[in-house]
Protein backbone atom coordinates (compact mmCIF):
# COMPACT_ATOMS: atom_id res chain seq x y z
CA UNK A 1 0.00 0.00 0.00
CA UNK A 2 1.23 3.49 -0.84
CA UNK A 3 2.49 5.31 2.25
CA UNK A 4 1.08 8.80 2.77
CA UNK A 5 1.59 11.70 5.11
CA UNK A 6 -1.25 13.89 6.35
CA UNK A 7 -0.88 17.65 6.64
CA UNK A 8 -3.48 19.78 8.39
CA UNK A 9 -3.71 23.39 7.21
CA UNK A 10 -6.39 25.72 8.58
CA UNK A 11 -8.32 22.71 9.86
CA UNK A 12 -8.33 20.96 6.47
CA UNK A 13 -6.46 17.66 5.91
CA UNK A 14 -4.32 17.02 2.85
CA UNK A 15 -2.52 13.82 1.94
CA UNK A 16 0.88 13.69 0.28
CA UNK A 17 2.47 10.45 -0.97
CA UNK A 18 5.76 9.17 0.43
CA UNK A 19 8.29 8.12 -2.20
CA UNK A 20 10.68 5.31 -1.20
CA UNK A 21 14.03 4.91 -2.97
CA UNK A 22 15.68 1.56 -3.75
CA UNK A 23 17.91 1.98 -0.68
CA UNK A 24 14.96 2.80 1.57
CA UNK A 25 15.31 6.60 1.61
CA UNK A 26 11.93 8.24 2.17
CA UNK A 27 10.68 11.58 0.87
CA UNK A 28 7.39 13.43 1.05
CA UNK A 29 6.26 14.17 -2.49
CA UNK A 30 5.05 17.76 -2.29
CA UNK A 31 4.73 18.32 -6.02
CA UNK A 32 0.97 19.04 -5.63
CA UNK A 33 1.34 21.07 -2.42
CA UNK A 34 0.87 24.54 -3.87
CA UNK A 35 -1.88 23.50 -6.23
CA UNK A 36 -3.87 21.89 -3.43
CA UNK A 37 -3.06 24.10 -0.44
CA UNK A 38 -1.77 27.40 -1.87
CA UNK A 39 1.36 27.04 0.30
CA UNK A 40 4.97 26.52 -0.71
CA UNK A 41 7.89 25.17 1.33
CA UNK A 42 10.91 27.21 2.42
CA UNK A 43 14.25 25.40 2.52
CA UNK A 44 17.32 27.68 2.26
CA UNK A 45 20.26 25.86 0.71
CA UNK A 46 17.91 22.97 -0.22
CA UNK A 47 19.09 21.13 2.88
CA UNK A 48 15.87 19.05 3.03
CA UNK A 49 14.88 19.13 -0.61
CA UNK A 50 15.20 16.32 -3.15
CA UNK A 51 15.22 17.87 -6.62
CA UNK A 52 14.87 14.71 -8.70
CA UNK A 53 14.64 10.93 -8.81
CA UNK A 54 17.99 9.58 -9.99
CA UNK A 55 19.52 6.18 -10.78
CA UNK A 56 23.12 7.33 -11.09
CA UNK A 57 24.81 7.70 -7.71
CA UNK A 58 23.90 6.55 -4.22
CA UNK A 59 25.47 8.05 -1.13
CA UNK A 60 24.72 7.50 2.54
CA UNK A 61 26.14 10.30 4.64
CA UNK A 62 25.76 8.47 7.94
CA UNK A 63 27.39 5.21 6.82
CA UNK A 64 29.94 6.84 4.49
CA UNK A 65 28.75 4.96 1.37
CA UNK A 66 29.27 6.08 -2.23
CA UNK A 67 28.28 3.96 -5.24
CA UNK A 68 28.15 4.77 -8.95
CA UNK A 69 25.38 2.83 -10.71
CA UNK A 70 25.40 0.49 -7.71
CA UNK A 71 29.16 -0.22 -7.69
CA UNK A 72 31.07 0.89 -4.56
CA UNK A 73 33.58 3.65 -5.28
CA UNK A 74 36.24 1.62 -3.42
CA UNK A 75 35.98 -1.15 -6.04
CA UNK A 76 36.08 1.28 -8.94
CA UNK A 77 39.10 3.10 -7.48
CA UNK A 78 40.92 -0.20 -7.15
CA UNK A 79 39.93 -1.94 -10.38
CA UNK A 80 38.59 0.51 -12.95
CA UNK A 81 39.96 3.34 -15.07
CA UNK A 82 38.54 6.82 -15.39
CA UNK A 83 37.42 6.18 -18.98
CA UNK A 84 35.61 2.98 -17.97
CA UNK A 85 33.97 4.75 -15.00
CA UNK A 86 32.89 7.58 -17.31
CA UNK A 87 31.25 5.01 -19.60
CA UNK A 88 29.56 3.40 -16.59
CA UNK A 89 28.12 6.70 -15.35
CA UNK A 90 26.97 7.91 -18.74
CA UNK A 91 25.57 4.61 -20.06
CA UNK A 92 24.38 3.06 -16.82
CA UNK A 93 26.49 -0.12 -17.06
CA UNK A 94 30.07 -1.29 -17.43
CA UNK A 95 31.25 -1.53 -21.06
CA UNK A 96 32.21 -4.75 -22.84
CA UNK A 97 35.83 -4.91 -23.98
CA UNK A 98 34.82 -3.90 -27.53
CA UNK A 99 32.74 -0.97 -26.26
CA UNK A 100 35.57 0.23 -24.04
CA UNK A 101 38.08 0.09 -26.89
CA UNK A 102 35.69 1.94 -29.19
CA UNK A 103 35.04 4.58 -26.52
CA UNK A 104 38.78 5.09 -25.92
CA UNK A 105 39.44 5.38 -29.68
CA UNK A 106 36.65 7.94 -30.02
CA UNK A 107 38.08 9.96 -27.13
CA UNK A 108 41.41 10.05 -28.92
CA UNK A 109 39.80 10.91 -32.28
CA UNK A 110 38.04 13.94 -30.81
CA UNK A 111 40.89 15.20 -28.69
CA UNK A 112 42.10 18.00 -30.95
CA UNK A 113 40.69 21.48 -30.44
CA UNK A 114 39.73 23.69 -33.39
CA UNK A 115 42.86 25.68 -34.30
CA UNK A 116 40.95 28.99 -34.26
CA UNK A 117 40.08 28.40 -30.61
CA UNK A 118 43.75 28.66 -29.76
CA UNK A 119 43.71 32.41 -30.45
CA UNK A 120 41.19 32.77 -27.62
CA UNK A 121 43.69 31.29 -25.20
CA UNK A 122 46.33 33.80 -26.31
CA UNK A 123 44.15 36.72 -25.30
CA UNK A 124 43.49 35.81 -21.67
CA UNK A 125 45.76 37.81 -19.37
CA UNK A 126 48.71 35.97 -17.89
CA UNK A 127 47.80 34.78 -14.43
CA UNK A 128 44.07 34.45 -15.23
CA UNK A 129 42.61 31.59 -13.20
CA UNK A 130 42.34 28.47 -15.41
CA UNK A 131 38.80 27.77 -14.11
CA UNK A 132 37.61 31.06 -15.63
CA UNK A 133 39.39 30.21 -18.87
CA UNK A 134 37.99 26.67 -18.93
CA UNK A 135 34.37 27.68 -18.36
CA UNK A 136 34.60 30.32 -21.13
CA UNK A 137 36.22 27.90 -23.54
CA UNK A 138 33.71 25.13 -22.88
CA UNK A 139 30.88 27.58 -23.59
CA UNK A 140 32.69 28.70 -26.77
CA UNK A 141 32.79 25.09 -28.02
CA UNK A 142 29.19 25.44 -29.22
CA UNK A 143 30.26 28.23 -31.61
CA UNK A 144 32.94 26.00 -33.12
CA UNK A 145 30.90 22.81 -33.12
CA UNK A 146 27.33 23.88 -33.91
CA UNK A 147 24.44 21.44 -33.93
CA UNK A 148 24.01 19.64 -37.27
CA UNK A 149 20.28 19.46 -38.07
CA UNK A 150 20.69 16.25 -40.16
CA UNK A 151 21.88 14.33 -37.10
CA UNK A 152 19.37 12.60 -34.85
CA UNK A 153 19.11 13.96 -31.31
CA UNK A 154 20.76 10.80 -29.98
CA UNK A 155 23.71 11.09 -32.40
CA UNK A 156 24.11 14.77 -31.54
CA UNK A 157 24.20 14.01 -27.80
CA UNK A 158 26.68 11.14 -28.30
CA UNK A 159 29.10 13.27 -30.27
CA UNK A 160 28.78 16.23 -27.89
CA UNK A 161 29.48 13.98 -24.90
CA UNK A 162 32.58 12.48 -26.54
CA UNK A 163 33.82 15.89 -27.62
CA UNK A 164 33.43 17.30 -24.16
CA UNK A 165 35.20 14.44 -22.38
CA UNK A 166 38.03 14.58 -24.81
CA UNK A 167 38.44 18.28 -25.51
CA UNK A 168 38.06 19.55 -21.95
CA UNK A 169 41.19 17.58 -21.07
CA UNK A 170 43.05 19.09 -24.06
CA UNK A 171 41.83 22.60 -23.26
CA UNK A 172 42.82 22.25 -19.61
CA UNK A 173 46.37 21.35 -20.62
CA UNK A 174 46.42 24.12 -23.26
CA UNK A 175 45.35 26.76 -20.75
CA UNK A 176 48.22 25.75 -18.49
CA UNK A 177 50.80 25.79 -21.29
CA UNK A 178 49.68 29.16 -22.60
CA UNK A 179 49.52 30.70 -19.11
CA UNK A 180 53.22 29.79 -18.77
CA UNK A 181 54.09 31.12 -22.21
CA UNK A 182 54.89 27.59 -23.45
CA UNK A 183 54.08 26.00 -26.78
CA UNK A 184 50.94 23.88 -26.88
CA UNK A 185 51.50 20.10 -26.98
CA UNK A 186 49.01 18.16 -29.10
CA UNK A 187 47.31 14.96 -27.90
CA UNK A 188 48.85 11.71 -29.17
CA UNK A 189 47.08 8.60 -30.38
CA UNK A 190 49.29 6.11 -28.54
CA UNK A 191 48.58 7.46 -25.05
CA UNK A 192 45.74 6.58 -22.71
CA UNK A 193 43.46 9.34 -21.43
CA UNK A 194 45.47 10.21 -18.32
CA UNK A 195 48.88 9.70 -19.95
CA UNK A 196 47.87 12.01 -22.78
CA UNK A 197 46.88 14.70 -20.30
CA UNK A 198 50.18 14.47 -18.44
CA UNK A 199 52.12 14.59 -21.69
CA UNK A 200 50.19 17.63 -22.94
CA UNK A 201 50.92 19.37 -19.62
CA UNK A 202 54.59 18.60 -19.23
CA UNK A 203 56.28 17.57 -22.48
CA UNK A 204 58.86 20.08 -23.77
CA UNK A 205 61.07 20.11 -26.87
CA UNK A 206 64.17 20.18 -24.66
CA UNK A 207 63.08 17.45 -22.29
CA UNK A 208 60.60 14.88 -23.61
CA UNK A 209 58.20 13.90 -20.85
CA UNK A 210 58.50 10.34 -19.58
CA UNK A 211 55.01 9.21 -18.62
CA UNK A 212 55.24 7.61 -15.18
CA UNK A 213 52.70 4.79 -14.73
CA UNK A 214 52.42 5.65 -11.01
CA UNK A 215 51.18 9.11 -11.97
CA UNK A 216 48.80 7.66 -14.53
CA UNK A 217 47.29 5.34 -11.93
CA UNK A 218 47.09 8.11 -9.31
CA UNK A 219 45.33 10.41 -11.77
CA UNK A 220 42.87 7.67 -12.69
CA UNK A 221 42.00 7.12 -9.04
CA UNK A 222 41.78 10.89 -8.41
CA UNK A 223 39.34 11.29 -11.32
CA UNK A 224 37.28 8.21 -10.39
CA UNK A 225 36.83 9.59 -6.86
CA UNK A 226 35.54 12.86 -8.29
CA UNK A 227 33.44 11.38 -11.11
CA UNK A 228 30.00 11.97 -9.57
CA UNK A 229 28.46 12.98 -6.29
CA UNK A 230 24.72 13.16 -6.90
CA UNK A 231 23.06 16.58 -6.41
CA UNK A 232 26.06 18.65 -5.25
CA UNK A 233 26.26 22.39 -5.99
CA UNK A 234 27.84 22.16 -9.47
CA UNK A 235 25.67 19.24 -10.58
CA UNK A 236 22.58 21.07 -9.37
CA UNK A 237 23.82 24.05 -11.45
CA UNK A 238 24.20 21.83 -14.54
CA UNK A 239 20.68 20.45 -14.05
CA UNK A 240 19.18 23.88 -13.37
CA UNK A 241 20.80 25.60 -16.35
CA UNK A 242 20.12 22.52 -18.49
CA UNK A 243 16.45 22.62 -17.50
CA UNK A 244 16.07 25.75 -19.65
CA UNK A 245 17.00 23.39 -22.54
CA UNK A 246 20.32 25.11 -23.24
CA UNK A 247 22.94 23.08 -25.07
CA UNK A 248 25.14 20.72 -23.08
CA UNK A 249 28.26 22.93 -23.45
CA UNK A 250 26.48 25.85 -21.76
CA UNK A 251 25.17 23.65 -18.96
CA UNK A 252 28.64 22.19 -18.30
CA UNK A 253 30.18 25.65 -18.37
CA UNK A 254 27.75 26.64 -15.57
CA UNK A 255 28.87 23.56 -13.61
CA UNK A 256 32.51 24.60 -13.96
CA UNK A 257 31.69 28.07 -12.61
CA UNK A 258 29.92 26.59 -9.58
CA UNK A 259 32.74 24.15 -8.92
CA UNK A 260 35.27 27.00 -8.80
CA UNK A 261 34.01 28.19 -5.39
CA UNK A 262 36.20 27.50 -2.34
CA UNK A 263 33.29 25.86 -0.49
CA UNK A 264 33.01 23.34 -3.34
CA UNK A 265 35.72 22.19 -5.79
CA UNK A 266 37.94 25.19 -5.10
CA UNK A 267 38.59 23.68 -1.65
CA UNK A 268 41.43 21.48 -2.97
CA UNK A 269 43.42 24.63 -3.74
CA UNK A 270 42.37 26.31 -0.46
CA UNK A 271 43.53 23.27 1.56
CA UNK A 272 47.08 23.61 0.25
CA UNK A 273 47.01 27.36 0.91
CA UNK A 274 45.85 26.67 4.48
CA UNK A 275 48.48 23.94 5.06
CA UNK A 276 51.14 26.31 3.70
CA UNK A 277 50.08 29.04 6.11
CA UNK A 278 50.27 26.55 9.00
CA UNK A 279 53.76 25.55 7.82
CA UNK A 280 54.87 29.16 7.44
CA UNK A 281 53.54 30.05 10.89
CA UNK A 282 55.77 27.39 12.48
CA UNK A 283 53.71 24.23 11.97
CA UNK A 284 51.45 24.47 15.02
CA UNK A 285 47.91 23.36 14.08
CA UNK A 286 46.30 24.41 17.39
CA UNK A 287 45.76 28.14 16.58
CA UNK A 288 44.04 27.13 13.33
CA UNK A 289 41.68 24.80 15.17
CA UNK A 290 40.99 27.59 17.65
CA UNK A 291 40.19 30.00 14.80
CA UNK A 292 37.87 27.44 13.20
CA UNK A 293 35.87 27.06 16.41
CA UNK A 294 35.68 30.81 17.10
CA UNK A 295 32.19 31.96 16.12
CA UNK A 296 33.47 35.51 15.56
CA UNK A 297 36.07 34.34 13.07
CA UNK A 298 34.89 33.43 9.56
CA UNK A 299 37.84 31.04 9.11
CA UNK A 300 36.93 27.44 8.21
CA UNK A 301 39.11 24.37 8.16
CA UNK A 302 39.39 23.78 4.44
CA UNK A 303 38.93 20.16 3.41
CA UNK A 304 36.80 19.44 6.48
CA UNK A 305 33.05 18.98 6.67
CA UNK A 306 30.44 17.99 4.17
CA UNK A 307 26.76 18.69 3.63
CA UNK A 308 25.92 14.98 3.37
CA UNK A 309 28.75 12.97 4.99
CA UNK A 310 28.46 13.22 8.74
CA UNK A 311 30.72 10.32 9.83
CA UNK A 312 33.42 10.15 7.16
CA UNK A 313 33.88 10.80 3.46
CA UNK A 314 34.77 7.45 1.82
CA UNK A 315 36.62 9.33 -0.93
CA UNK A 316 38.74 11.07 1.72
CA UNK A 317 39.90 7.69 3.06
CA UNK A 318 40.93 6.43 -0.40
CA UNK A 319 42.61 9.75 -1.18
CA UNK A 320 44.63 9.59 2.04
CA UNK A 321 45.86 6.09 1.16
CA UNK A 322 46.64 7.21 -2.39
CA UNK A 323 48.62 10.10 -0.95
CA UNK A 324 50.80 7.75 1.15
CA UNK A 325 51.16 5.27 -1.75
CA UNK A 326 52.31 7.81 -4.31
CA UNK A 327 54.79 9.50 -1.96
CA UNK A 328 56.18 6.08 -0.95
CA UNK A 329 56.52 4.97 -4.56
CA UNK A 330 58.33 8.18 -5.43
CA UNK A 331 60.34 7.94 -2.25
CA UNK A 332 59.37 11.53 -1.56
CA UNK A 333 58.41 13.46 1.53
CA UNK A 334 56.00 16.36 1.54
CA UNK A 335 56.09 18.60 4.65
CA UNK A 336 52.44 19.44 4.00
CA UNK A 337 51.49 15.78 4.51
CA UNK A 338 52.96 15.85 8.03
CA UNK A 339 50.94 18.99 8.80
CA UNK A 340 47.81 17.46 7.29
CA UNK A 341 48.17 14.29 9.37
CA UNK A 342 48.70 16.34 12.50
CA UNK A 343 45.73 18.57 11.76
CA UNK A 344 43.49 15.57 11.09
CA UNK A 345 44.56 13.87 14.32
CA UNK A 346 43.99 17.03 16.37
CA UNK A 347 40.65 17.76 14.65
CA UNK A 348 39.32 14.27 15.35
CA UNK A 349 39.84 14.93 19.08
CA UNK A 350 38.69 18.53 19.02
CA UNK A 351 35.30 19.10 20.75
CA UNK A 352 34.17 21.69 18.16
CA UNK A 353 35.00 19.37 15.24
CA UNK A 354 33.36 16.39 16.94
CA UNK A 355 30.28 18.45 17.72
CA UNK A 356 30.06 19.72 14.12
CA UNK A 357 30.86 16.37 12.44
CA UNK A 358 33.98 17.76 10.81
CA UNK A 359 36.05 15.03 9.11
CA UNK A 360 38.46 15.29 6.20
CA UNK A 361 36.58 15.34 2.90
CA UNK A 362 37.86 14.34 -0.55
CA UNK A 363 39.73 17.63 -0.93
CA UNK A 364 41.84 17.34 2.19
CA UNK A 365 44.48 14.95 0.85
CA UNK A 366 43.74 15.52 -2.87
CA UNK A 367 46.11 18.48 -3.20
CA UNK A 368 49.06 16.54 -1.80
CA UNK A 369 48.46 13.82 -4.43
CA UNK A 370 48.35 16.44 -7.19
CA UNK A 371 51.52 18.13 -5.90
CA UNK A 372 53.31 14.78 -6.04
CA UNK A 373 52.28 14.40 -9.69
CA UNK A 374 53.61 17.90 -10.41
CA UNK A 375 50.27 19.63 -11.00
CA UNK A 376 50.50 23.37 -10.18
CA UNK A 377 48.22 24.76 -7.49
CA UNK A 378 45.98 26.87 -9.73
CA UNK A 379 45.18 23.77 -11.84
CA UNK A 380 43.83 21.70 -8.93
CA UNK A 381 40.20 22.65 -9.41
CA UNK A 382 40.55 22.15 -13.17
CA UNK A 383 41.62 18.58 -12.43
CA UNK A 384 38.50 18.19 -10.31
CA UNK A 385 36.40 19.56 -13.21
CA UNK A 386 37.82 16.98 -15.65
CA UNK A 387 36.97 14.26 -13.12
CA UNK A 388 33.43 15.53 -12.49
CA UNK A 389 32.60 15.82 -16.19
CA UNK A 390 31.10 12.29 -16.59
CA UNK A 391 28.88 12.96 -13.58
CA UNK A 392 27.63 16.28 -14.94
CA UNK A 393 27.01 14.71 -18.34
CA UNK A 394 25.12 11.71 -16.97
CA UNK A 395 23.03 13.90 -14.66
CA UNK A 396 22.22 16.25 -17.55
CA UNK A 397 21.25 13.29 -19.77
CA UNK A 398 19.08 11.80 -17.07
CA UNK A 399 17.25 15.10 -16.57
CA UNK A 400 16.71 15.51 -20.33
CA UNK A 401 15.25 11.98 -20.53
CA UNK A 402 13.02 12.44 -17.46
CA UNK A 403 9.34 12.10 -18.50
CA UNK A 404 8.46 14.44 -15.60
CA UNK A 405 10.99 17.05 -16.72
CA UNK A 406 10.22 20.60 -15.65
CA UNK A 407 11.98 23.94 -15.96
CA UNK A 408 13.76 24.49 -12.61
CA UNK A 409 12.23 27.56 -11.10
CA UNK A 410 12.15 27.85 -7.31
CA UNK A 411 9.78 30.22 -5.59
CA UNK A 412 10.44 32.62 -2.71
CA UNK A 413 8.75 34.33 0.19
CA UNK A 414 8.84 38.05 -0.50
CA UNK A 415 9.90 40.12 2.54
CA UNK A 416 10.37 43.52 0.88
CA UNK A 417 8.31 46.73 0.70
CA UNK A 418 4.60 46.61 0.04
CA UNK A 419 3.47 48.59 -3.02
CA UNK A 420 4.77 52.18 -2.92
CA UNK A 421 4.62 54.93 -5.54
CA UNK A 422 7.49 55.95 -7.81
CA UNK A 423 8.99 59.30 -6.70
CA UNK A 424 10.31 61.57 -9.47
CA UNK A 425 14.06 62.25 -9.02
CA UNK A 426 13.73 65.96 -8.13
CA UNK A 427 11.25 65.15 -5.34
CA UNK A 428 13.50 62.59 -3.62
CA UNK A 429 15.19 63.50 -0.34
N1 LIG B 1 35.41 24.58 9.55
C1 LIG B 1 34.82 25.14 10.63
N2 LIG B 1 33.49 25.07 10.86
C2 LIG B 1 32.73 24.44 9.98
C3 LIG B 1 33.27 23.83 8.82
C4 LIG B 1 34.66 23.92 8.64
N3 LIG B 1 35.24 23.36 7.58
N4 LIG B 1 32.27 23.26 8.11
C5 LIG B 1 31.16 23.50 8.77
N5 LIG B 1 31.40 24.21 9.90
C6 LIG B 1 30.46 24.64 10.91
C7 LIG B 1 29.76 25.93 10.53
O1 LIG B 1 30.48 27.05 10.98
C8 LIG B 1 28.44 25.76 11.23
O2 LIG B 1 28.63 26.02 12.59
P1 LIG B 1 27.44 26.56 13.55
O3 LIG B 1 26.28 25.63 13.36
O4 LIG B 1 28.04 26.47 14.92
O5 LIG B 1 27.15 27.94 13.07
C9 LIG B 1 28.15 24.28 11.07
O6 LIG B 1 29.44 23.66 10.97
C10 LIG B 1 27.33 23.93 9.86
O7 LIG B 1 27.93 24.57 8.74
P2 LIG B 1 27.18 24.72 7.34
O8 LIG B 1 28.00 25.57 6.45
O9 LIG B 1 25.74 25.07 7.56
O10 LIG B 1 27.19 23.20 6.91
P3 LIG B 1 27.10 22.62 5.51
O11 LIG B 1 26.63 21.26 5.63
O12 LIG B 1 26.37 23.52 4.59
O13 LIG B 1 28.69 22.67 5.12
C11 LIG B 1 30.52 22.73 3.71
C12 LIG B 1 29.25 21.99 4.13
C13 LIG B 1 30.14 24.00 2.94
C14 LIG B 1 31.33 21.81 2.81
C15 LIG B 1 31.37 23.12 4.97
O14 LIG B 1 31.64 21.97 5.74
C16 LIG B 1 32.64 23.86 4.62
O15 LIG B 1 32.61 25.07 4.41
N6 LIG B 1 33.81 23.11 4.52
C17 LIG B 1 35.07 23.74 4.16
C18 LIG B 1 35.16 23.85 2.65
C19 LIG B 1 35.36 22.50 1.98
O16 LIG B 1 36.19 21.69 2.37
N7 LIG B 1 34.56 22.28 0.92
C20 LIG B 1 34.64 21.04 0.12
C21 LIG B 1 33.42 20.20 0.35
S1 LIG B 1 33.54 18.71 -0.55
C22 LIG B 1 33.29 19.18 -2.13
O17 LIG B 1 32.53 20.06 -2.44
C23 LIG B 1 33.99 18.48 -3.14
Structure description:
The structure is a single chain. The chain is mostly helical and 429 residues long. 52% of the residues lie in helices and 7% in strands. It contains 18 helices and six strands. It has helices spanning 33-37, 73-79, 82-91, 97-109, 117-123, 130-144, 153-179, 193-202, 213-226, 233-242, 248-259, 267-280, 286-293, 314-330, 335-349, 351-355, 362-373, 380-401; strands spanning 4-9, 12-20, 26-28, 57-60, 65-68, 71-72. The protein has a three-stranded antiparallel β-sheet. A three-stranded antiparallel β-sheet has the order 4-5-6. α3 runs parallel beside α18, α10 (233-242) packs antiparallel against α11 and α12 (267-280) packs across α15. The protein is globular. The protein binds acetyl coenzyme *A. Acetyl coenzyme *A binds at residues 263-265, 267, 292, 300-307, 356, 358, 361-363. Acetyl coenzyme *A binds next to α17.
Strand order of the largest sheet: 1-2-3
Hey, roughly how much beta strand do the residues contain? Answer: 5-15%
Largest sheet properties: 3 strands, antiparallel
Write down how many β-strands occur, each being a DSSP E stretch of 2 or more residues: 6
Radius of gyration: 24 Å
Principal-axis shape? globular
Small molecules (ligands, ions, cofactors) in the structure:
acetyl coenzyme *A
Low-confidence parts lasting 5 or more residues at pLDDT below 50? none
Please provide the ordered H/E string of secondary-structure elements: EEEHEEEHHHHHHHHHHHHHHHHH
Amino acid sequence: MEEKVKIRIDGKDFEMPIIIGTEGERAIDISRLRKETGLITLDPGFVNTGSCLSSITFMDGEKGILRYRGIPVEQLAEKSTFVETAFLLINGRLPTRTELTRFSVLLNDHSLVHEDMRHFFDNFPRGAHPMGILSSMVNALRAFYPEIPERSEEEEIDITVTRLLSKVRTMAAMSYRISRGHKVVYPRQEYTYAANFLNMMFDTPVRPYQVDENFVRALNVFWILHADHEQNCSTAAVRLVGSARVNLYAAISAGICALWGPLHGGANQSVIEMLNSILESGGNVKPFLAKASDRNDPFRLMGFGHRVYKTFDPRGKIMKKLCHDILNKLNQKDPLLDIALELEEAALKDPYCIDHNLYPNVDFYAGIVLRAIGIPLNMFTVLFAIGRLPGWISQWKESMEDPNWKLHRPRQIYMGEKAIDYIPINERK
